[in-house]
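Below is the data:
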Amino acid sequence: MHSTDCGTDHPLVRSKLLVAPPKFFCSSTKCSPSINTAAMKNDSSISLFKSLLSIKAMPDYPGTNVEDAWSKFRSLVMGSAVSAFGHRQRKQPDWFRESANVLIPAVEARREARLQLKTRNTRAAKARLLTAKGNVQRLVRVALRNFWRKISTEGQICSEIGDFRGVYNGIKSTIEPQPARTASLLSAQGSLIQDPSVQLDRWVEHYSSIYSTEKHFTTDALSHLPQLPVLHNLDAEISFS
């Protein structure tokens, strides 16, 4: 703006500013713990769940709001299931359990650094988080290396002294346990069998009924079988020429 009123050669600068409120990171709501579904195969746990549910059952009051009634019924069933079956426990790998006294503090420090970064996004907070991440990765590599070195050393020692059971246990510890799955069977009356011991009895009953029963047949059935030609060349001695 060069004029008599403003003696300058600088042009006018126009800009747009975007004003946004700061972000506040809130912790997410904690999910309800999972129920131990493996305990649902136990008859005593099922009986306990039924008894708790019958004791805590709510009477059906007329005029009750549907949403309130459903919320109370859901909490009632969930509480009874947790009391009877318990919570599902999280299983950690063997290498983590052996070095838990070193890894858990490092993981907690990384979590604390991440929370500080979310609270105050500064360069120092980012540097602390990167350092904590690197420390966790380094400790995990060391824990894995020590675990596999220990397993291989024990297996080698057991193999040298002829302890095949120790070799088998070492191989089994390195392979994750596979869940045991059993298919349901039907009894002779048609009812469903889920108990493994009762399933074994059912197999014994099945094969006993097959092999213990005398089978009758007539020799006339043999005459209806197709007669194939005799292969005499199969009786000849093997020649390498």
Remarks:
- The helical segments are 43-55, 66-85, 94-98, 100-119, 123-161, 164-174, 196-211.
